[in-house]
């Protein structure tokens, strides 16, 4: 008898798991109502328009490298850039956003599999002797009194439920979540690139302030020499006190302007501290004049730009996500089927709980279909299509903006390189004019006002030269950023990696 019970138990288990296997096959053969995805088409130019007159990198250097800032050959910039991605708090937040999006994709994937629950229980019951739940009867003495008994109930159930993905709703949800995680990963890469570029821009703007401070220091010394000259000529009776007053006024004005330069320098230094995830009170950079030239930047071809910009990749993955969401919306038109099953042991005594006679099983199925929803599913589907078209338009706009940024910075570098040469000529002319004015003043031919005019003209041209140099360096950084900074779509995590990779620690902070 025991052998027959064991065989019945084995047969029941086999039937349950066979039924589950058949359901899995149905899942694999399920439908998919999402449109076949294609990257929104874009016309790309054959070449960049603003490269006319621009020095192109040699073919051997036709691609930007990961540590693009090393092209500038500045050890201090290298040291800062190596730390910024690890310590910047905006980057840290973007990383956590990616990790959260990845876990959402894993949550969606879990819906493809049955949910199995275990709910062991123990109950000790003593029913009322006078209630409807009393059990048993007998006599006690001369009076007839219902008898009650206390009993136990042990249960060790194992229940399973599963909704086969016959219409692709869950699979498309998984795809959409995985694409969303990939988009978030691209946004993280774009945030890192943005922070690195912003650091380099602030770095060169700070160095430009150092260059201006150095220029004003040298100019103030020259103005002090000029004031001393006017005082000497006044004391010898050759010059008037008006010239002394004019020279002194120019010197004091220039001193005040030099002092004001410290404000911008401090602000740039504080901005760099923030990017580094450091308190502005604990961070400083030694003053160093701007003395570098922009590197030759490899451009590649315009068609490669869509594979090298993380913001474009993020926009494209969003399009793919919304395409998959259309399939989720369409699947709502079809019935949902839920399969349930349960097995386990139940007994009134613990010693008999795991006996074959205490074993039980049950299977079931349930189907549901919405008959009337006043157009809700249609509206949801139309919304999904609208979201798809909107994200496709955003993707195209992002691509167009990327080409604009490249062309803008190419034009800036080309024009600034010409302007720098012209400004050097203007500085030499201003210096010659000042030398002549000073000489004629010494000879008593011209008044000191001519000297002041020449000094102011020279300082203005020198300031302009520093500003142009700073613009050239920052435009170089922005061009590298516009080209993607050496990033590639190959750096995006694959769908498999999104769904199966382990947790990653947050970046270290300083």
Explain how this protein is built:
The chain has 510 residues and is an alpha+beta fold. The protein has a domain at 42-109 and 184-333 and 378-500: Up-down Bundle (Outer membrane efflux proteins (OEP)). Helix content is 58%, strand content 9%. The protein contains ten helices and seven strands. The chain has helices spanning 2-28, 75-87, 89-110, 169-235, 241-275, 305-308, 310-331, 376-442, 448-482, 495-500, and strands at residues 115-118, 121-125, 139-140, 143-144, 151-162, 336-347, 359-368. The strands form two sheets. Strands 1, 2, 5, 6 and 7 form a five-stranded antiparallel sheet that branches. Strands 3-4 form a two-stranded antiparallel sheet. A hairpin with a 2-residue loop joins strand 3 and strand 4. Helix 3 packs antiparallel against helix 4 (169-235), helix 4 (169-235) runs antiparallel to helix 5 and helix 8 packs antiparallel against helix 9. The chain is elongated and about 130 Å long. The two termini are 73 Å apart. Residues 137-145 and 505-510 have low confidence and may be disordered.
């Amino acid at each position: 008898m025991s052998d027959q019970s064991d065989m019945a138990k084995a047969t029941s288990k086999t039937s349950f798991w066979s039924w589950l296997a058949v359901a899995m096959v149905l899942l694999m053969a399920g439908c998919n109502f999402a449109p076949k995805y294609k990257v929104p088409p874009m016309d790309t130019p054959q070449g960049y328009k603003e490269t006319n007159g621009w020095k192109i990198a040699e073919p051997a250097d036709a691609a930007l490298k990961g540590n693009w800032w090393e092209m500038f050959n500045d050890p201090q910039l290298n040291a800062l850039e190596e730390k910024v991605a690890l310590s910047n708090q905006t980057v840290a937040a973007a990383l956590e956003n990616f990790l959260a999006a990845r876990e959402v994709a894993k949550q969606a994937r879990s819906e493809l599999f049955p949910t199995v629950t275990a709910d062991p229980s123990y109950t000790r019951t003593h029913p009322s002797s006078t209630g409807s739940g009393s059990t048993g009867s007998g006599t006690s003495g001369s009076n007839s009194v219902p008898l009650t008994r206390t009993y136990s109930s042990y249960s060790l159930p194992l229940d399973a439920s599963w909704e086969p993905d016959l219409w692709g709703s869950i699979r498309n949800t998984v795809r959409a979540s995985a694409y969303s995680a990939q988009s978030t990963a691209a946004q993280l890469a774009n945030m890192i690139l943005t922070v690195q570029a912003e650091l380099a821009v602030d770095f060169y703007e700070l160095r430009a302030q150092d260059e201006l401070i150095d220029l004003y220091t040298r100019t103030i010394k020259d103005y002090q020499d000029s004031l001393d000259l006017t005082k000497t000529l006044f004391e010898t009776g050759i010059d008037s006190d008006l010239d002394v007053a004019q020279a002194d006024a120019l010197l004091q004005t220039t001193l005040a302007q030099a002092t004001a330069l410290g404000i911008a320098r401090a602000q740039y230094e504080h901005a760099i501290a923030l990017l580094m995830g450091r308190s502005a009170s604990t961070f400083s950079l030694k003053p160093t004049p701007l003395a570098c030239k922009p590197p030759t930047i490899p451009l590649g071809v315009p068609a490669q730009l869509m594979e090298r910009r993380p913001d474009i990749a993020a926009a494209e993955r969003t399009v793919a996500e919304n395409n998959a969401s259309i399939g989720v919306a369409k699947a709502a038109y079809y019935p949902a089927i839920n399969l349930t099953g349960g097995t386990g042991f139940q007994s009134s005594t613990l010693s008999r709980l795991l006996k074959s006679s205490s074993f039980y099983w049950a299977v079931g199925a349930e189907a549901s279909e919405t008959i009337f929803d006043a157009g809700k599913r249609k509206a949801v589907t139309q919304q999904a299509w609208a979201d798809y078209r909107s994200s496709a338009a955003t993707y195209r706009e992002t691509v167009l903006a990327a080409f604009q940024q490249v062309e803008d910075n190419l034009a800036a570098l080309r024009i600034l390189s010409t302007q720098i040469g012209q400004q050097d000529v203007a500085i030499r002319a201003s210096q010659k004019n000042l030398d002549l004015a000073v000489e004629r003043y010494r000879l008593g031919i011209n008044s000191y006002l001519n000297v002041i005019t020449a000094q102011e003209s020279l300082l203005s041209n020198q300031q302009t030269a520093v500003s142009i140099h700073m613009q050239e360096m920052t435009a170089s950084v922005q061009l590298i950023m516009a080209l993607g900074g050496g990033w590639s779509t190959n750096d995006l995590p694959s769908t498999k990696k999104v769904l199966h990779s382990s947790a990653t620690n947050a970046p270290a902070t300083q």
